Records
---
Amino acid sequence: MTRETIINIALALVLLAIPFVATQMGSPFYVTLATRMAILALAAVGLNLALGLGGLVSFGHAAFFGVGGYAAGILASHAFSMQPLDLGFAEFAGTNSMLVIWLVAIAAAGLVALFIGAVSLRTSGVYFIMITLAFAQMTYYFAISWPAYGGEDGLSIFVRNTFPGINTMVPMSFFLLCYAVLIAVLVLFWLVGNSRFGAALQAARQNDVRVASVGIAPFRIRLAAFVISGMITGLAGALYADLNRFVSPSMMSWHMSGEFIVLIILGGVGRLFGPVAGAMMFVMVEYLLGGMTDRWQFFLGLALLAVVLFARGGLIGSLAGKVRHG
Amino acid sequence: MAEPILSIRHLYKSFGALKATEDVSIDLRPGEIHALIGPNGAGKSTLIHQIAGTLKSDSGEIVFLGDRLNDLSVAERARRGLGRSFQVSSLATEFSALRNVMLAVQSVQGSSFRFFKPVMSDPSLTGPAREALARVGLQDRASVPAAELSHGERRQLEIAIALALGSKAFLLDEPMAGMGPEGSKALTEFLSDLRNEAPILLIEHDMDAVFALADRISVLVYGRVIATGTVDEIRANPEVRRAYLGDE
Amino acid sequence: MATPMRSSARSKSRLPSSQKSLRRGHHLPYLNVPIASGTILSSALFIEQLLNGLQLGVMLFLMAAGLTLIFGVMGLINLAHGSLYMVGAFACAWVAAQTGSFWIGLAASLAAAAAMGAIVEIAIIRRLYSRDHLDQVLATFALILIFSEGTRWVFGSVPLYLNVPEQLAGFVTLPGGSRYQLYRLAIIGVGVAVAVGLYLLISMTRLGMRIRAGESDREMIGALGVDIRTLYTIVFALGAALAGFAGAMVGALQSVQVGMGEPVLILAFVVIVIGGIGSIKGALVGAILVGLIDTMGRFLMPQVFSVFMGTSQAATAGAAVASMLIYIVMAIILAVRPQGLFAKG
């Protein structure tokens, strides 16, 4: 077992242990905190596929996060009000079922990612960063100016959506559900990273001329990666909406996109568990600093600056050393 | 005479006022090594870029195995069988030598849209890749990241990739550069055999290698082909001597 | 129960409620002259909106010119450019309040933004030139957090107000009969003057020559014996001063508050993506284009939609589409010219 594998297992166990220990110690609030860690980690795992493996610095993943969140919020609100969702050509009843909501969230985020990716992947570098940011901002302004689902005030989910066989209103059950999804997606990420697709994607990050010269078109590989990446982040968005039982345009704000990138950098770019380590650190720091001072974002900024300037490679990078590819 | 595998007709490319290639017409026949020589800046690399598709031609035609390539992407041209080595080696530097070659193997096998099967434990990828590495003598360096290979080894690796692609023609841009005398000699022998597999369009500054290997030579000066012929014809050509060989 | 989490989710939006108006579907609320949709399109209103669009355009140009110059010369993507806009606005509002003079405030905004730019460049930014874009994005994102929270620390969460200077407080009568704020006209004039000044600076002066050399070839400029470090600091400070200047002028039209620079920054990104990164001319054309399309879209879209549907629906649909209009235009331009309208090389 490599050192990184040991660290990964340890991280997975620690995240799993937090809510149990917290419940034992009589601070159930930490269960919610751990759930937040798991969901943000999931969103960042999605981004890590594009950014870490593919080198695509997307500053617009909040769009997919928000689309997933709104999928949950909108379907749940129609189920609650018993008014079908009228799409013009067909009507759909809302639903409280997470399984259906997840599918819709994944599909909707995937479609938005397909559109954004198809345009922005024609460019690269700094253009790509700015265009993904701009498109995410477009969805943000759209959510604000479309009043049917709360506009800028957002949309409440009155009762957390349901999952077969689980009482999702019990914080621990909901945590375990999110944790299971996270682990499942991490397995998926690992598989994809080691597959032919993953090989082509990572090679395109290192040298896209080389990839084209062996007959693989980098654009299609990247677009597929971007879409899958958006789908995962969309799924995380649906879970996040259920965690807070609330969804608002702020899920699509560029601060959110920035946070996802920060999570990955803190944990380690392209590392399987980088987003997990990053999310755990970030939520912890946010909580601890937030408890000490109202000015915690100021210190977060300073800490982030220090990491970028002096500690590249993130937590896993500093603990496990360089990456080796087969 | 056999039908040429690759034929280039009246190809032009300018960068602003600079004419990098001007009315270049050459062809590559089955089983031959066609060397392209000329002073620095004559447009040799530009021509390779135009053929491979990394540069778009202003006008002219590139026909490969009977098909016009002009409007095809780099990837599509590679899939049709144009194998290429770069003047400045171009590799996935974090990947090992083996994984660089495996990329070519996976391309040949068809789709890169396979998401779940781990590549490293897939003998249908590693097998042909190791074979190609062995052919260029890199079998012992298979697990070394491309970034840590020596200059000469990277050149060999590029040829291994072109081999693994099952190329129907090779475009080799200074494959000997950076190699010691030993390496050059071994590579010369290797290329000499390789021509039977697929013809080679060879850019090379090492004149000994060129004269030893080439079936035909084209001389490019200021973007124009001033002569094409056998080694002896080129040696005897007064214009070539004046323009190029005379300087040496 | 998860109730506490829900309230924390609301506060997670990170924008104090005083800032909510910033998010109400309009990038720049001060431009939002309420229009009863369905009203007959009067030519006076049309001209007024056209001028508003132009005014937004010249402000965006001041932002975009700095961004594009910094990218062109140093290869740096600076997310914190909006913070410098905010610094300018705060400096102007605070100094104007202390001295009672808008003009002293305006001068202070230039000085404060330029000085802040120079300090940040020397302390942090210059370590980022050799880094990849990902590091630049993160570091400048961190700077935004520091600037925003730092400003809140110093000035509190309550917005500052800045009055339009007396000399420009009046109105002018436009052809068609409607009255238009003189101050807004002045902003357009100043913007045009700055554009001309910038053109002269870059094409005529020694500094401009060095900037152009730096854009085309970074090694060469070193060989020319120019002190690159100083040049970079100057360019960064110049960009910062332009942003601060824009912030100060706009500060008199809206409340001066933390986060005010961010919507403008993102519009400025759209501008330089459209115009072509590194091109001042592209920034100018892009800025005017974005300013006009955004403003006119918000004005005209509800009216266009009212042809097809009821007034209130048209207002909703029109506003929603208008909020996306410039991004759609950006997508179309990129589909045709991936490097923007005036790309280099």
---
Amino acid sequence: MEATSGRGVRPERPLSPHLQIYSPLINMVMSILHRITGAALYAGSLLLAWWLIAAASGPDYYNYVSSWFATWAGKIILLGYTWALMNHMLGGLRHLLWDTGHGYNLKTIDILCWGSLAASFLLTAIIWAFVALGGI
Amino acid sequence: MKTMRTPLKKVRYLGSAKEGADHFWKLRVTSVANVFLGIFLVWLIVSLLGADYATVRQKLGNPLIALALLGLILSGTIHMRLGMQSIIEDYVHAEGPKLAALMLNTFFAIFIALASVFAILKLSFGA
């Protein structure tokens, strides 16, 4: 069911301007990033399933999979995965706050968006500092 | 009476009054669970860096860790299926490809869930 003029034919109305019309604003960029990181984590779930299957398959296959994650390409993917997870998590928390109807002041929106972006990089750096130090 | 509009006019085209919020609400509930379970996953992986196979196996076979992992897999796959469903519905408009993509989305989420759950259970119960 679509909203029509009531005469059964949908009139040709001008479309509202879309993404390419606007210069990027931080809330818009973070909204797009939230969707992109969500899709990336969706694909990345394969890595978690692969790792768990490897652990359940025995030492040979586990060591084989671990050696993949230990390559430079593997590390870069895992670094990206970490940041995507942090950014999506913080973006999700921001959206949960907005779901309650709070935080819609323009200045608050900017602070929340810049803050969650900065925090996603900070958390990623902290996690990889632990990685560089060889675990907890 | 302040308005001449009927109650039906106010709600028409605003969506279902029954299960319309189901998708929205499930996405929120799983998102809250994922905050905690996601932090747990990061901790788990960092704590297993460079560990040998016996250590990894023992840790993943720990009942508490296995429970949290199972929770993460369930909550995570439900969440990612709902999220990808929104993406598909936003960008794929032709009816055939949309149905196919939505179906593939469900298959993929179930595949990830089954493979992961099977692996966790095997680590917990397997010889």
